[in-house]
# Entry
Amino acid sequence: MGKWRYGVILDAGSSGTRVHIYRWLNSARAIKDADAVELHSLPKLQTKKKWTLKIKPGVSTFGDHPADVGRDHLQELLDHALSIVPEDQVEDTPLFLMATAGVRLLEPIQQKALLAEICSYAQQHTRFSLPECDLHIQVIPGETEGLYGWIAANYLLGGFDFPEEHAHGNGHHTYGFLDMGGASAQIAFAPNATEAEKHANDLKLLRMRTLDGQPSEYKVFTTTWLGFGVNQARERYLEALMEATFTHEAKELLDPCLPVGLKTTLKGDPIGPETHVGSDPILMGTGRFDECLRQTYPLLDKDAPCADHPCLLHGQHVPAIDFSINHFVGVSEYWHTTHGVFEVSQKDKTYDFTKYQALVKDFCSNEWEDIESGVAAGKWGKNVDAKTAQEVCFKASWLINVLHDGIGIPRVGIEKGSVGPGYNMTKEIAAHAKGKGFLDPFQAVDRIDDMEVSWTLGKMVLYAAGQIPPATADALAVGFGSNVANGLPSDFQEAGSNSNPVPIGEDEGLTEAAEELAETAQEHSRSTGFLLFMLILIIVGYFFRKRERRFRLVKKINTTLGRNRRPGTPRKIVRSFFGSGKLFGRSSSNYERVLEDGEAVNDFELGEVDLEDNNDSSDSSEGSRVGRSSGLATPKVNVMGFESGSYFADSPVQGVGLGLNNIPNAMDRTGLVVRTESRERLGPNLQMLGAGRRSRTGSPTRMKSPLMKPLEEM
# Structure
């Protein structure tokens, strides 16, 4: 087992499924190397952009034919995960698939059949750890999605590990979390002490574990609003617009949430001069953003009955939010609509209500033809296409209404609680590792320290925390559930991990060097000196190890550096630097030394050797493993290229390939078998190529060499 542990999680959304892969130090290694500060921190997770893959459409499209979801959807995602996770770690790597909005809309019987098929396929076609289908393959409610997002945001911002650097007052050091997708919106935050006590029964108890085995507990409120995502809100808006203004005589509906002069169908398809629309209503854009704000406000349903005060949207109970200590980060649509859409204008700038509203108002008042020309010229950034430009006016008005009139977040620069002008929130977030928190009531984010703020990260942080051994035998499990005073609540959901530490092997140091070489070679593909330096370190260490440990290390390096082969394909013999010489595996001199050792010869056997250099099987392949291995694995280094790039512009980097080969020596090519009735008596002078073959006592082959002496019979 290497120093890393891995986790694979599939985010099965409505539009597609995205696989995320994370890794962290195994708990034994992390605890051994941790300093005093790190011992009081959560496990440190890592990921890379190339480790994430999204495919379309979503798994919900297989609701009517679940038997096809494995072959037509999951296999590509599983293959991607298998290409990243080291082969010898697959069985210890958990696999999760968690479905959100799309699958929630399926009938219960469809959900059950689809999830069962997904779990069955994954168990049959991979060796990932998937012991319980109900725990690993599930539809998660919006509240759970919000809680995982809250964990991810605070984990990346440093609110958990460095509370003194994120003190917001009254002992509060965590951030609130807002998420908005197409169908729903979520909120999660830790209320102030007064509200937490008053609404204790409404909170979730979250328990994690730091490296020193101590529990880390939080009480969090989380809820979701179905139908309050941007797409569902748009549908409700059009229904209200139809009801208020549609007539059969004038079938055009004036839409203030579309740019001036843009005509579309109710489904949002643009209408050109030659488009046949029949008798269906047509939307005509007027680009009046102030009117768009006014008409989207009623969709908040602020007048709905509130059974449990206080309430925010749609009569949904939410404890009072103290914006003097509760500071929120928003992801997904909060980011894409405020920053992603206006990449050029808003990049690296804080969300400011006054400036943002003026920016959107100016955009929406443009003629549609001018906007189309601007899109083609990249005026608003390369991420803005015609469809995005068409939708931004409504999305911006909905987001502003939800934030300020719905949730009640103060308008920066206007309302109480705002910070001074020129305060760059995005840069403050990026610099949080230097001990800087932020004091704005709201800021949209996408990535922090180059890691995406995704609820999948929160789920895996919880899992990794559950792998840490508890400090006491009576410690409670890691996970979350209802807020109860003592013990575990009946609805407690454990993290799904165990705390059995993986021991650190004697050869881990060199193995880790090999792992680092494999992972960083592509990043230093033009630095030959770096690669040579890494190889020298491995070789020097190799020289000073006992023979048995060298053999184990070679096998370990093979697995580590050869893991980029396509899953299911056989390994090929390659020429290996470790393949010849006394200290690097098989050789005639090494063979002679084994014969001289006497007792070691009983455990040493050379099998058949294929003379072809391009043989499709090697000692480490399944086909040659049974009854043919000498115990000396054929080493292989195969460092594949990869691509990396920035968030806004990917810049591929070509990788390099390394080949370390094994050249069979003359003794190997004879196909000798050293096993005779009296092999423990073999002498040091045995030199002939025919030696060691079984023969009767009177066989002429026994006396063909003048150096050969008769053997005593048993």
About this structure: The first helix runs from residue 27 to 33. The CA atoms of residues 251 and 446 lie 41 Å apart.
